User: Fold these one by one.
Assistant:
Number 1:
Amino acid sequence: MSMPRLAPSVLSLARKDLLLLWRDRVGFFFVFGFPLLIAIFFGLVFSGPGSGPGARLPIVVVDRDGSEASGALLHSLGASDSLSVEVMETPEAARARVRSGARVASIEIEPGFGSVDLPRRVVSRDAAPGVVIAIDPARQAEAGLLRGVVTREAFAALAPPGDASLASNPVPVRLERAAAADRNAFLVTFPQGLVWGVMACAAGFGVSLVAERRGGTLARIRSGPTPAWAVLAGKATACFVGNVALAVVLLVVGAIAFGLLSSASLVALVLAVLSVALGFVGLMMLLAVCGKTESAAGGVGWAVLLVLAMVGGAMAPRFLMPAWLDVVGGLSPVRWAIEAYEGAIWRGWTLSQMVWPCAKLIVMGAATFTLGARLMTRRD
Amino acid sequence: MTKSFGTLRAVDGVSLDVRPGEVLGLLGPNGAGKTTTLSIAAGRLHPTSGEVRLDGVSPARASARARVGVAPQELALYDELSAYENVALFARLFGVRRRELRERSLSALDRVGLADRAKGRARTFSGGMRRRLNLAMAITHDPAIVLLDEPTAGVDPQSRHAIFDVVASLRQAGCAVVCSTHYLEEAERLCDRVVIIDHGRVLVEGQVAALIDEHGGPPRVHIESGAGVVEQETDTPMRLVAEALADPTTREVHVERPDLESVFMRLTGRRLRD
């Protein structure tokens, strides 16, 4: 018997796999349909008009100079199509507003801003009083846009009308971070990493639940004295422990290696870790009933989580979003989780400020767990 | 009891009983309703009508299910757990106390010949080993009733005999065993009584010998001689044998006594089942 030729074998095997993919309709959708929908949807979203009121960056301005020029700057910032301005009296109050997440940045017009005219600024640019932008570390993506707008308006406030004779802008605009622990990018990346971790954990446990259902072990356990709720509670407990362990490991590493927790509140942090873990345990249960096969459940699970992450601001800067999408993103548990972690780690949120995102996570977790458990019990 | 799935009546008026120390064989072609019957008995499915009692208690009650051991036809193991971990998990779920866990789990593994592979991952086991592990997981908690769905499907003769030994030991220990199987010689050897079901209905029930006497038909005499090959069913086989032996052209003669397979084929027919 001669050896079979390889090319037909390879083609037959490839045909088999494509046929299997075609037969797995859910899997097929997530290979071909879902990316197309995502590309079209977000393309339409981000290519839409970004100049509406919703696209304005919310900032807080403190005029510490009180001069005519600073007043003109304040007025022009308020009139800008790019900004939504709130005026406050002190830099401390303004920065607290930024740290709380209510505003993207505080713009502080330094004393003496209006007393140094443009020609003298050319000589002593960096030493001259200017403008300080204290940006929310989680909104670094917006910093460039904000700096450009402030620089332009500051120049316009100091320059005589129609004077564009200076080749370079002599008004110093300094950028700082508004967080208590300055200059630490890990303050932003670790909360996001934590949320990606719990999403992976939720997706993984959801798929494992489907695998157990398909493999017969779940039915076998159910044939014993263990009630259905206990079986699901066991899975939920494992997912919860996984989520908490993940958070502990990341936070300990972050604390030791990057000083992550130097200004964190332990009580708020515990509240954040527990509520995020509970919230995503519920989500895991709901994801587990979204597909009959492991690949389908995995596809649906990650698709849902990616969309939640995208609209929640964990993937694309929020300032790129139109107002309505930013509002929709406020319904994403990913945003609640990031808010909870940031509030506990560096925003310096009080417990009363922490309650809102944490309560949303816990309620969402309880609701999705109940719904998922009921659907699963009914399906079994 | 009956069980319907939509318009399909998978179990249609089946009534069975099994006593302590008895092995009841559940025989039938594919799709006859054996697995559905066992699933109802295990409390996994609710009958559409009728009821199941385990020592007088419904399997809907957890206390009743705790006294049952189920070895499903589709191997339900955790591949990434060791044999010991698989057995110990189910022992705990069925109420074995922590202090007895190790001893009971190792004992169950020993009964199925897997004590020396207790630490091996189920994923690395052969088909026969996995089937034996499947059985060990059903008996660790010393159940009063054991439901075995095709316990020897796809295993080698050595594993099959090991499983036979376990079933025999369960009977000796006073356990009530219900065992569905396709292997009729296995049922003949293991079972005190058999029930043959088809299309969800009980066709016959009784001891193997009695069923053969009643439904097996007459012996079949097979003769090869100068006149050709003759097969004949007769109630007087020895007369035909004597005649054949008197014929100098006879090359071969033998008598096939009816067995359980004869009963099975007579009752369920030769039509293929899918």
Number 2:
Amino acid sequence: MKGNFHIHLLLALATLLIYSGCASKEPLLSTEHDTSSSIKVPFVAPRSDLCGSTSIEMVSSYWQSITPYTPRLSQKELDARTLIPAKGGTLQVELMATARANGLLAYTIPPTFDALLHELEKQHPVIVLLNRGYSWYPLWHYAPAVGYNKKDQTILMHFSDRPNEAINIATFKRLWERSGNWGVVLLPPEYLPVSASPKAFLRSAYDLEKTGMRDNAIIAYKSALQRWPKDIDILFALANAYHHSNKFTAAEKYYRKLLSIEPLNPLALNNLSDLLCHIGRQNEAMATIKKADSDNIEIQSIINATQKKILNGCTLQASPKK
Amino acid sequence: MNISKLLLSFILSITLLTQTSWAQIASTEAIFKQAETLSSKDKIIQFTARQDVAKILVQMDVEPTMIKDRVAAMTDEEASKFANEIDTMPAGGDAVGALVGAVVFIFVVLLITDILGLTKVFDFTRTVR
């Protein structure tokens, strides 16, 4: 009877092994990437339940070591902001929120292995969420990926208590898949993710602005403009950010730049009019708002309100609220 | 652990002021949303989401002094996601410690299946059947 159990166990194990051996036969690393990459990310030893915090800490001190960036939060603050005791860990949203509070832009990379390699190649460490268990018994863990080696077919990670642990790519892919290939790059606002699309990057930069870090957001918008100089959305976000910080000359410059690309953009026309009105150039404000027109009822109602304000001599309100 | 309503409303008044814009000019938010500005209904939903997040954090034994900062650090979208999906969201934790948990877990599963008579791993169990 006991022997019977062992046979079953053996069969089960054999099935598992065979199953594991059936992972993709396609080449794991395509030829478009460099043969290897190794990022010098300072290693931080694990602290109980705090891999979210230590991951942010490691990536932050990496940027601190190669750029003028200075972290805003202490190790203690990182811990206190990320841990949820009842969950025994850190949620993705709070990992992102804490990284931002630490002065970094948090950008979720596209969920592909290729996107991960692109970032590593460009010396951007990526914090990945892995499930070391199974879907029915998850053991969630964050760790920074800090490089890869094509020849050995490994990903380098500060996975646990040793730096630069080489993890077999097939294994890594299996663990990573279970989190839906979730990975995030944390960057000083001067840097752009390799895999960024204008809209997705703008979203991350705007998240900085919304959570009280407008100055960092402005830097991020400006670096985005270097890659996408004619992107209307980025120009609008940058102009608005300057407008909100009462830097009217800079704001005007970027509203006008946007309007040189899209002369009838109603949102830019409206905001520029508001700005001109605010700095006492009422006639110009009126001329500008007259060009604004929109099918969208809500936009049109804003335009009407601005027009009314200008007609009233721009006295209705002072600066735009934050 | 209890937290006074006063503290909660204080937290929320601060986070609300730092976030959703009530400005006259067209907001950058317009880029991401179909609608130009947030309707007052949206604002109320976001307000409640933040209130919920604060409550959940309290229930989950988070240090009360940190709650204000943690709620404020989230965007509206993150706060809604947090409030709505807290039960299913993964929380990344230990690299090593949980493994012990896994062993205990498997032990318990086998113990139960033993007791139900589905397995016979341990000598000290007797099936209930």
Number 3:
Amino acid sequence: MNVVVCVKQIPDPANPGKLTSETHTIVRDGKLILDDSDAYGVEMALQLVDAAGGGEVTLVSMAPHSETSGLRTALAMGAAKAILVSDDALAGSDALSTAKVLAAAIKRAEPDLVIAATESTDGYTGTTPVQVAEVLGWPSISFAKKVAVADGTVKVDRQTETGYDSVEVSLPALVTVTAGVVEPRYPSFKGIMAAKGKPVEELKVTDLGLEPGQVGAAGARQEVVSVEPAEARKAGEIVVDEGDGYEKIVAFLEQIKVI
Amino acid sequence: MQWTDDHDRFRQAVRGVLDREVQPHVDEWEAAGIFPGHQLFKALGSAGLFGLEYDPADGGQGADHSYTVILGEELGRVGCGGIPMAISVQTDMATPSLARFGTPELKAAYLAPALRGEMVASIAVTEPDAGSDVAGLRTRAVRDGDEWVINGSKLYITNGTQADWLCLLARTSDEGGSRGMSQIVFPTSTPGFSVSRSLKKLGNRSSDTAELSFVDARVPVANTIGEIGQGFRQQMRQFQNERMIAAYSAVGAMTVALEKTAAYLKERKAFGQPLLANQYLQYSLAELSAEVDMLRHYNYACADAYLRGEDTTRFATIAKLKAGRLHRKVADTCLQFHGGAGYMEETWVSRFFRDGRLLSIGGGADEVMLRVMSVLDGFTA
């Protein structure tokens, strides 16, 4: 079974990020790393291929400046190869134009299954994976907390607010996995060295049969009009327990609709 | 030292593995006075953290020494001294001689399982009457046909209560002094072997420490590591690895300690302002940070020399001496700046203060390092 994992290479969250003053998009000039949330998808894919007894995991990513640092981390975990789409024409892409690019790249790998994170750690739109499935014309299941593949179908326990739904669709399909679905392995030294020799196919927009006008800022249908800093956290409330502390806590939890 | 993306990736991986496998359990293991050696080592062995520099044919990773520097620095960050010490025994104290001089059969039987984390190893050198003065050790191995018959005792043995095998240094002839010793792989399942005592310590409490007893314990002569009679020389070389990883690890530990102390001093207010607004505290931390950085770069120079295949005795001796003394200074300052909170067991800094004290004693005391230095530099009469 062949699985594609969509992976995003993002600025290191440990460093304060910057937005461009004109388009309010994230500055991606420095070194990019593998989005932590994608490590779960890579691990899930490796386990599914292992369970199937054959096949390989291919990474698909879109990033500026031919960046492969994050891809190498995922390759060091055990993925077999990667497709990187890197093109100046992609600057300013919104979620839909990103989905078009990823879908076109995914088609080249002819996978049985596509796995992605529920959302990236830098953009947080959470809409790209399902748009990829829509562009491909494949079924998609989001928020998977358990994934199993058998007999041409994928069975998923899908996380909901009250529990989970058991969902099944035929392959090929796209599944987004939640953090914690599996425990990602850390690359070993041997894995890191092996990753250096694994193939990364770098493509331009035109290699995918797309026109530059369909993607990037030119093809975007969304525009970030303004960005405001998040409201500073307010000071917490101290509840003094005078024998009725639990009642005050219950009342507070009811007020914020947790219970 | 040239750090590459590969090094960064490895450092992140080591930190991730230790964050997952060690950090969450440190308090529990410290309280228990022991850690689950086989369980933890299996996890770390599977992650490829053991045998970084050893031949892949022996189960090693085939990395160069720069990756050991990273492992050491990251081990230092885990929030206690006991677990880094236990791991370092497996990676850099009990196994280097076996990897260098062991026969293929011996390496297949003991080194490869240790690197997979399936066996726990100990280094058994110190005795009740021979600590830093290794030449004074008394444990004897007398040859009887194809077997060594071993009698004696070993003291302060890290991982000693749960080790599957020991890298044992014993006297194998009557030459006396540093001559006539051999290194022997000693399986702890051997009849005549016993753990006499599990020892309670000032610090490094999560790591078990034992006194071991050998009464007519028989092991094959084929378990000898390298040449019979060359044990002292081989052990002296193994000590270099021990001292280097100790110095690398100390830098990681001190760096985190200064970061944590600064964070506390920013939060903690006195006389209407954060404690760190006081210039005295700022400058004290800045000066210690500078000293830690100097040791870090001295370590890198040591590692570079080791990578070039040079004898690093002088580097390792100075680095280990400085690491022990600087750790004491950093720990004392961090504890002092935490005030009463720092004196409480529930605060990390009290453990840091206790654990670091061993650096000036284990692996050759400060005074032994100075003795080595005076000989190397000709300060003797």
Number 4:
Amino acid sequence: MAVTPLQDLRPSNGVKRKDMKKRVRKKILYPPLFLLFFATWAGSLVFPGVSGAIKLPVLENAGACMACHASKDLVISFKDKEKMSVFVSPDDFIKTVHSALSCTDCHQKVSLESHPGRVLESRSAFAKEASGACRNCHADSQLKAKANHAYMAEKADAPLCAVCHGAHNVRRISEWKSSLRGKEYCLTCHRQSISKTLRSGERLSLLIDPANLASSVHNKHDCSDCHAEYNRDSHPVKTFFDSREHSVSVSEICGKCHADKYTSLRGSIHYNLSFHVGGTLVSKGNPKAPVCTDCHGFHAVGPKTTYETLSGVPCRKCHEDIFNIYAASVHGMSRAKGEHRAPMCSSCHFAHEIKFTAMTDKIKAACLGCHKGVEGEHKKWLPNAELHLSVIACAACHAPASEKGIYLQLVDQKTGEPFTREQILPLLGTSSEELSRRLNAHGQGLDSYELSYILKQLNERGAGARVTYLGRMDVNKYSEAHRLSLKKNAISECESCHRKDSKFLKRVTLAIIKTEGGMERYTLQPDVLSSVFSMLSSRQFYLLGGTRIALLDWAGIFIVFCGLLLPIAHVTMRVLTAPLRKKGKSEGSEKGEKG
Amino acid sequence: MNKIFLHPLLVRIWHWVNAVGFIVLIITGIQIRYREIANFGTFKAAVEIHNFFGFVVILDFLLWLAYYVLTGKIRMYVPLNLKKFLKGALKQARYYGYGLFIGEENPHHATADNKFNPLQQAAYFMIMLLLMPLQLISGVLLWDIKAFADWIGLLGGLKVVDMVHVAVFFFLAAFFFVHVYLTTLGTTPLEHIKAMFTGYEELEEHPK
């Protein structure tokens, strides 16, 4: 059984201070003290030179103290009104390493004349003063004999001796610590409120709540199962720059057992992807990219179900804005109502192998994974349903309040695979930075001609690959994809998109996929969808009524106008020349009559 | 007045089905392409009607093609003798541009096997054997661009196929006005139209 610090100093109701004082002086203290004095004097006569060295068991030399402190009802009050039991168990004390000490060896400020005269500020002040007595016998060299003890002892805010070692139940370390099994050995110190200062100045708590450990899925493991370098014989002192470095280091440990998860994590967006601006990887030191402990904690690792609740899902720690949108969505609200089939973050994004999803079919696959038969449902009412489902993200319609736009993506026509930035750069003979500058040339985005010129260059130098732009509709912000609504609210009016003035066609983006995942976005001028040059650039993107080419329309108006003008002109001529024909007829009639 | 049998029943059925189909396709085509301007109904209805009548016109065209090929009458659409055709076309153009106004006789006399004057022959050759197949094929490709993605790719991409479909639509819409006008150039303004119902056309008697 573990020993709780200051366990023997529990406050309780009991004898009043004045009564106790009187009793101590008149009836209890004086006679035994006299005897004690006499015995000491006699001893000094029998064993000259060892005066004061003779230590009798406390029960024999502290009868005066124990006359009161053996009472379980004895309590003292502090100025802060807190009460504390001052009961000292004779049975326990006699077993301690200090059993030969007298009370005043430690409690040197206790005066029989005044005891218990002083009233201390608080329990902690009392504990501090009491622990200070340890230093009377235990020299610095002893305290610093072990590196970790030295580290703790040197700290200004080091735990008091009694916190770890107890007060009146102090036993030799060798007597009890070696008998501790598993976690209890480590928890001797780590259940205390200890911490260390990292190089950055940050404080790292080393406190481990035994209750957390007990409720963890790892509660059957010993500390050294994870902290392999630490055992009874070895306790290296590790230093870290900051808590982030500590977390990354600790998370490496998880991979020892959870190799599959760890491998998935290494291929995930959290670990490997760099975002378009500013973002970097865990592997590149992005302090915001999560490692194992950021989601699972250190010692309170819960079962899988812990992370599948609205309150427990760890994603919200970093993605709170998205989580709030999700929570207000049809999925989030269903989940809140107890519908466990409603998806959580990991249902669509997975827990560890989180991939970049924009411009991919991954999320759509997740949607269709639950919404079985949804393709058939769309076919019942949506013309070209299969086409719509392949080029429009589910959220574009099912998050009706979201802002949407058209994304053009370079793809290899032969394989249908995205043509990545890493493939583009050598073909254009440019660097990543130069390409970004070129694609942002005017600040307003490339126009159709410039876009087609890039395509031309790629295809001229493409070594057989035929590159083209493919278009699809998606939400403009990742977070908007979570704003899913009820089916009845989904956009189902064709006119929302199939018209020249559709607001969804106003924002056109060039999406360049990166080999390691992720995407760079470059704004394009909206005319890339409908200018004459779009015949060359976005020849594979065509939206009925929405991407019509203005020049073709004007040519059409001219053609139809000519078709209309011809009959009108001819009729006009017929009307104007009618007298001629009448005259011809009458002349013909006259000729016939003469003939 | 002499009556001449010009239009067999099958041709008349084809013609009127085609006529109705054309009108519906033109209206719904405008609705689909210019939704923000033309609002005859919902976009979805326009697409569905356009698709339906598109296939009606395709079947009708196949009926026409089968009839004319199997009977050999397809020859009346094809100017086999180029010299004769050019000579006749000039003569006919002169008639429409001058002779008609001064009361000259139409140089072409329609028969059941030779209904078209050289200009009509050229126009219908272009329309029936070039524009219509182009329009019908591009229409089918656009009807299901996912299923016909490979064919569309071969033809130069979606925008090219769409451009062809729309351009032919403009030509056919323009010709529609000309065609309707030409029907009024019979012996009476309604004579040609009447003939397309009855099959018989009354010919004006000319002094020998």
